[in-house]
TrEMBL record:
PANTHER family: HYPOXANTHINE PHOSPHORIBOSYLTRANSFERASE (PTHR43340:SF1), HYPOXANTHINE-GUANINE PHOSPHORIBOSYLTRANSFERASE (PTHR43340). CDD domains: PRTases_typeI (cd06223). It comes from Lentilactobacillus buchneri DSM 20057. Its cofactor is Mg(2+). Purine salvage pathway enzyme that catalyzes the transfer of the ribosyl-5-phosphate group from 5-phospho-alpha-D-ribose 1-diphosphate (PRPP) to the N9 position of the 6-oxopurines hypoxanthine and guanine to form the corresponding ribonucleotides IMP (inosine 5'-monophosphate) and GMP (guanosine 5'-monophosphate), with the release of PPi. It is found in: Cytoplasm. The keyword Nucleotide-binding applies. The lineage of its organism: Bacteria, Bacillati, Bacillota, Bacilli, Lactobacillales. This is Hypoxanthine phosphoribosyltransferase.
């Protein structure tokens, strides 16, 4: 796997430092509240777990699975709900935890969905923000890193369901995904 990586953007240690910083910001924001923290599967699973442990306050945890990439390197433009949350969020504070905000389509879909369900507030925590890829207006409240417009994998992010288990975030060599 490591041989497929062009360069490492963020080391395990840099990611952990960002998680600790974000955990403190989130704890301050939700002091005295119990937000529903919704992890977006599958990419955010590692980040979600680390963020949950870094936030020193009450929370409920749930997961949602949506897809817009369908195994490709670019968004299809259509967001599909694969698995919904189990928590009633009417009147609740919701924190969406994403691995990466690229086109913004998935995030916009989630923001609209949770607003329609009556969430009293919706905030977004993303490990990676890729503003160059943005196709719709969808912004995050808590950002780990701004990333260049390159195809990144690791720490939950994948290509064709591979590379999620890398402990760092790296740029995938183009020949890996252009030859398939």
């Amino acid at each position: 796997m490591n041989n497929d990586i062009l360069k490492v953007l963020y080391s395990k240690e840099e990611i952990q430092a960002a998680v600790e910083r974000l955990g403190k910001e989130i704890a301050q924001t939700y002091a005295g509240k119990t937000p529903v923290v919704v992890g977006v599967l599958k990419g955010a699973i590692f980040f979600m777990t680390d963020i949950a442990r870094a936030v020193d306050s009450y929370m409920q945890i749930d997961f949602i699975d949506v897809s817009s990439y369908h195994g490709a390197t670019e968004s299809s433009g259509t967001v599909e709900l694969l698995q919904d949350i189990n928590t009633d969020i009417d009147g609740r504070d919701v924190l969406i935890v994403e691995d990466i905000v690229d086109t913004g389509r998935t995030l916009k879909f989630l923001l609209d969905t949770f607003a329609d369900r009556g969430a009293s507030s919706i905030k977004v925590c993303t490990l990676l923000d890729k503003p160059a890829g943005r196709a719709v207006d969808a912004e995050s409240d808590f950002i780990g890193f701004k990333v260049p417009n390159e195809f990144v994998v690791g720490y939950g992010l994948d290509y064709d369901e591979k590379y999620r288990n890398l402990p760092y975030i790296g740029v995938l060599k183009p020949e890996i995904y252009t030859n398939n």
